[in-house]
Amino acid sequence: MDGDTPPHARDIQSVRTALGTSFDGLSDEEARRRLERYGKNILEEEEISRFRIFIKQFQDFLIYILMAAAVIALLAADFKDFVVIVALILVNGLIGYWQELKAESSIRALKKLTESRVSVVREGEIRQVPSPEIVHGDVVLLAEGDIVTADIRLYESYGLAVDEATMTGESVPVSKDHQAVLDPGAQPYELANSLLSGTTVVRGSGRGFVVRTGRDTYLAGIAARAQEASPESPFTRAIRDFSMRYAVLIMIILVLVGTVAFLQGRELVGIAYLLVAQLVSAVPAGLPLVVTLVMVVGALALSRKQTLTRHLPSVETLGSATVIASDKTGTITEGRLAVQDDVALDSRALMLAAALCNDAREGTGDPIDVALSRWVGEYGELRERHPRTWVFPFDTAMKLMATANEVDGRRRFFIKGAFEELAKRAENRDDLAALEERLNAMAEGGLRVLAFGAGDWQGEDPDAWRYEIVGLVGFLDPPKDGVRESVITARKAGIRVLMITGDYPLTARAIAGEVAIWKEGESVLTGGEIESMDDDALYAALATATVLARVIPEHKYRVVRVLQDRGEIVAVSGDGVNDVPALKAADLGIAMGSGTEAAKSVAKMVILDNNLRVIVDAIENGRVIVDNVRKVIYYLLSTSISEVVLISTSIFAGFPLPLVPIQILWINLVTDGVQDKMFPFIKEEGDVMRRPPKPPARQFFERRQITRILIFGLVMGMASFLVFEHLIFRFPYETANAIIFTAFAAFQWSNGIQAQKEHEPFFVNIRRSLTINPLIFLSVLIGLVLQLAAIYIVPSWFNAVPLAPEQWGYVALLAVVAFAVVETIKWVEYLADRAAG
Question: Judging by DSSP bridges, how do beta strands 570-574 and 323-327 pair with one another?
Fold first, then answer.
């Protein structure tokens, strides 16, 4: 449509002229020309080959790390880890490939909302045409149950109401008035004279001109956002940044060791052997595999709590979330209206009016009518006993509906609608002031209020109607069970909960107040206010705002981006097409199981029980997963650094290698290879929801974590060197080497046991220390049996010799020292935390 003024801001004649059409519709020839000019009324999408879809599953930084670990395992002849890692990569890729082949594409899902057959007027005749073939200027006929397949400017409407929840988040049908002429800057939820593609007619009928099709529709704008790339997960970013820094550190160590070895006059073959030993000791090859296993086990645990994971790193993102931006309808609330309050001047008359002036049938129909039918206990019986003899359908201009029914042998009149409209004809004027006061109080509480009247039948002419207002009924979409408790839990955990909705501010605030999202002193931010702010002002406003009302998809998307740009980890929940841009942009998009395919296709998680409570429960699980990832990172890096320190110090001191590469690989098998596989099963340590969230980089690599890793690595590396120095002068090299070989495995077992608990020392609660993960002791037993086999059954395979009984004292010494080092660190931190409160 040409011109700068949008259709909703023009009168009907101006729209018709601008479109070059008429009330008799387009000619077939003109429709064909316009189809060629503007294209089909479909959402365009890029066709992606199955091969590209498959390859895309492996374009992830975590997968790259796993691939690198597989190569290292292969070079080190560790075929077991190589096979496991490759299998894990392939399974992960096949799962992602299968999910994409199931057509969980947002654009295809959005297309389903607009593909049907449409009634149009062509050549003055009503015809049924496929929705992709309607064009600008077509006259479209709409009736109850029809899906709107293009953006339309109405020129006729008869009690027309449309469900716009998937577009705007509005929780109840929106009445339309074709005669309205709106401000050019009206928001989508204000378009009283227009229909948006993807919405559904729930009541009445109408006609209108098609003003936008295909890629020009409001729906297409949402689809464009859905095609944007999702942000990299915070966990992936943290692992990538750490890996790059650690790789630089390893290169520096290798260069330093190689230089010292060269200056010592060692042969090049020997130097190469040293560097291989150093590389094997420095690289925690099992880290990416075990971290992935922790997340896989976490994802399985989440699935038992009705949370399905579509993107594996998202299980960690849950634990790092600082903000939950939740949709209202269907997540916080039931997604259906219910009678919340009423004022009855005549209880029987109010019940009759609610039951008889009502079009609900078997629980279906207008949500307000359905709510009234549930509220009236004898709805079906009343309608049967008092048959309807006349009806005045809901009129959007008059904002009311009326019926006549046979009651007690006479014809009675019943009416419902806006209080201000019913008050114009009401005969009980002495009651109106008190009723209006009650109505204002109900409206202030966020209720949608209808007035009801009853009287004797006076005829069909509205001017002849005579009745008394018999009561008021207030409606609200009630909160779901458990939501309030979950919000309080989230707040205690330092997580901000924002409710984002297309509903009216008062209604939104009332719901938010009931579930503890909003409280006195906090603010409600509207879409109009969001548009008037720059990003800095918006972020400042979000510091006190907990409710965002009359919000459209662009606003929700922008709020997510502004929060992310300031370092927040944002989880967004939603179920409608209007939620797609924000779900895609979020660090963690969570779709409802009963939501639209468009929402589920871009989300990284899907919850089967549409309840905010499930999200908060999942965050609790996510925090346990984060803790376990943190613990396994500590365990693997601290042992790797102790190996680096031992070997580097020995080389710098001019000593022979205390451990040869085959021994390092074997130690990794009987310690890392067995123990670290048990870390996914560590139970929750304390109340994880009483701790504030941390960004992933600080979760895994903050000062306390790094300090622990370095202290353990340096102390145990030096302690092992001092023991090796003592042994090398007392025993033959082969014996000294065999003792260090076994002792190194033993003190790593001690470290693994200690790593199961982080927030309190082992001896503070011995029972919890022993039960937090009993499998860790099984792993020690397995490792010990394997080590004994290596020392006493096939020592030649590992360049070792059997140990005499008295030589096990050195092994025990290093194991006890390792345990004591970690316990001392924990006590220092534990006492410091208690002193700080």
Answer: parallel
- The 10s digit of each residue's pLDDT in 408-459 is 889 999 999 999 999 998 999 999 999 999 998 998 888 889 999 999 999 9
- Is 138 in the active site? no
List the one residue out of 565, 596, 560, 563 whose CA is nearest residue 581.
Answer: 560
226 contact partners, CB below 8 Å, separation of at least 6: 106, 107, 110, 580, 581, 584, 598, 601, 602
pLDDT band at 53 (very low <50, low <70, confident <90, very high): low
Nearest to 679 by CA among 741, 753, 789, 605: 753
Return the bridge partners of 122, or none.
26, 125
Residue 111: CB atoms within 10 Å: 21
Token pair, residue 574, equals 């939603």
CB 497 within 8 A of CB 546: yes
DSSP code string of 725-765: HHHHTTS-HHHHHHHHHHHHHHHHHHHHHHTT--SS-TTTS
User: Top-level CATH class of 7-41+116-226?
Assistant: mainly beta
Report which of residues 138 and 692 the model is more confident about: 138
Q: What is the CATH topology of the domain spanning 285-308+617-836?
A: Calcium-transporting ATPase, transmembrane domain (1.20.1110)
Q: Does residue 241 have a pLDDT over 90?
A: no
| Tens-digit pLDDT profile for residues 558-572 | 999 999 998 898 999
Where b means 16+ CB within 10 Å and e means fewer, 519-551 reads eeeeebbbbebbeebeeeebbebbeebbbbbbb
pLDDT for res 5:
85
**219, 167 Cβ separation under 8 angstroms:** yes
> Per residue in 179-199, pLDDT tens?
888 888 888 878 889 999 888
**Are 559 and 548 spatial neighbours (Cβ–Cβ below 8 Å)?**
yes
Q: Is the pLDDT of residue 2 over 60?
A: no
Distance, CA of 381 to CA of 612 (rounded, Å): 37
* DSSP tag of 378: T
Residues 6+ positions from 603 with CB-CB distance below 8 Å: 310, 583, 589, 590, 591
Which CATH number among 3.90.249.10, 3.40.1110.10, 3.40.50.720, 3.50.50.60 corresponds to the domain 338-476?
3.40.1110.10
- Domain 318-334+480-611 fold: Rossmann fold (3.40.50)
Cα 415 to Cα 467: distance, rounded to the nearest angstrom: 8
- What percent of the chain is modeled with pLDDT above 70? 87
Residue 56, classed as helix, strand or coil, is helix
Q: In the chain, where are the structural domains located?
A: 7-41+116-226, 50-104, 285-308+617-836, 318-334+480-611, 338-476
Q: Does 103 have pLDDT greater than 50?
A: no
Cβ atoms 10, 180 nearer than 8 A? no
DSSP 528-597: HHHHTS-HHHHHHHHTTEEEEES--HHHHHHHHHHHHHTT--EEEEE-SGGGHHHHHHSSEEEEETTS-H
Report the alpha-carbon distance of residue 419 to residue 215 in Å, rounded: 42
- The three state secondary structure string of 423-452 is HCCECCHHHHHHHHHHHHHHHHCCCEEEEE
Q: How confident is the model at residue 78 (pLDDT cuts 50, 70, 90)?
A: low
Is residue 597 within 8 Å of residue 644, measured between CB atoms? no
Alpha-carbon span 760 to 767, nearest angstrom: 12
* Given 146, 327, 579, 587, the catalytic residue: 327
pLDDT at 389 over 60: yes
